[in-house]
Here is the input.
Amino acid sequence: MPLQIQPIPAFETNYIWALHDDRHCAIVDPGSAPEVLEFLEAQDLTLCALLLTHHHHDHIGGVDALLSRQAVPVWGPADERMPQVDRVVAEGDRALVPELGLEFQVIETPGHTRTHIVYHDDARLLAGDTLFSVGCGRLFEGSPAQMQRSLDKLAALDPDIMVYCAHEYTADNCRFALAVEPGNRPLQRWAEEVERRRAQGAITLPTRLGDELAYNPFLRTRESSVIAAARAREPASGTDPAEVFGVIRRWKDSF
Ligand SMILES: [Zn+2]
Here is the structure.
């Protein structure tokens, strides 16, 4: 059985991603345990690893309960707020899930939190709360310049990579992005598709990185249309990507 990646919905908007074959399962950011345990049982899967992106409760709240049933490697960044991590990884390190033949590269993406990391291989990016479809994480512990640098690292990956984000925020993000770039045709088309999917209760993820480059304003801070929108919003702001990013992020926070 080839690798499957399935979302386990939790809380209001979270997706806990499950990577599995017909026997083993690795779980990304288990914010809640009951939904994960139910998933494992329903599919008759054995948990083999946890991959954590950052310390927020809706990403790690289920870790202790899962570990109390079964000890598995817990990958994550060095952060005193995540004591369960026993496979500490940093920029350029690899996270291995041999049961599934997976080998991820780690990228540090400070901004949403100080120690946020993401995992990627050639085909997929486990983005946590750094990158969403048509959006990005709020800056709780980082500066616009830091987050801009983090997103630049992700934007440099293979455009065909599929991005597995941790929240279903796409519809709201599209409404905001259309305020920034009302004339962006790929964005208009994706917003319609998102509307259609959400009306059917369907998921809008994963999303292709190359598509995000065409319509995610937070990846487009060098585009003249986004720069112009930022200048119109805060006329005193500069035009370098970090400043444009800062304006767009503040705008989104109060949208
Ligand atoms: Zn978060």
